[in-house]
Amino acid sequence: MQIKKTMNHLTVLFSSKMNFASAALILLLSSSMSFGQEICPDADVVVSAEGMAFSPAALIVDVGTTVGWVNYGGYHDVNGVNSSITQIPFYNPEDFYLAHVTGTEEGVCIGTHTFTIPGIYFYDCTSYGHAGSGMVANITVMAVVPGCTDYIACNYDITATENDNSCEYAEWGYDCDGNCVIDLDEDGICDTCLDYDIIVVDCECNFFDPATYTVFFINIDEENCIYLEDCFCECYNDEDGDGICDENETIVDELEDLSVMIFPNPVTSTLTITLNKKSTLQVFDTIGKLVEETGVVSSWVLNVSDWEKGLYTVKNQEGKTHKFIVE
Fold first, then answer.
1. Yes or no: is domain 249-326 CATH 2.40.150.20?
2. Predicted TM-score of the model (pTM)
3. CATH for 2-142?
4. What are phi and psi of 39, to 5 degrees?
5. What count of other Cβ atoms lies within 10 Å of the Cβ of residue 207?
6. Tell me: the pLDDT tens digits for 174-194?
């Protein structure tokens, strides 16, 4: 396990198993950064050189960061060109070098360097074999990549390291390609309401016609945010597929033998109902909703061209019912 502690642009990594004294030392280093920056006033981040060590020996900064080195004792330089141990070039993204200075307890600025090229930089001290005694260090320079860093945005950039406020988001209810996220009634219109008024319709099919059963379905009124649990009546038996239950075929065929005559049946536009005696009439749809009604008449002409297709029921004042089909 590791803990990250940020000091301005500086990131130091240390083990969670570090004892209290060591952790306190790190915190002391953090508090001393401001003093080091006073000694090297152009520095964003300060590294101390003392004894046979650079501290911190490893740090991470962003491109454009200016690092300063402060000598608190000894004769040290900062060599980012060739290894003092192997004499082989460090092959850093760019060479850098700061000449020797003699340190004091108050601290003396060795110099500063601004890192403008991303990459890993190695360096050491060339004095008196200091590098061989462990006075080596490195700096990782991170490129700043502007872009959208919000992973839920449509233009999320996985390579971006800094959010530039360019994030773009899909419209509510849609994905980034413009497709519906939710379309409960599968009508091609996105369901974008946050809350819905729920209405449940009970068709009572078996009550109005024992030859039918209820089929439930969902209908969404997207404009008014209404969630409708709707239904319609389906025949148990309809061998000829004409929408009239087989049990009712006789009723439809024999309407002329009753007190009510309905024609044409099925009907597409104009329906005529004649009675052998005057009566009030009511027309109900398949779910029992009253569609039309009239006073006492002996005949009634209806325009049904705009009506939903299906089976309708005519009821007279005596409570007798007769059926017709709108196609």
1. no
2. 0.44
3. 2.60.40.420
4. -75, -40
5. 11
6. 899 988 888 877 777 888 777
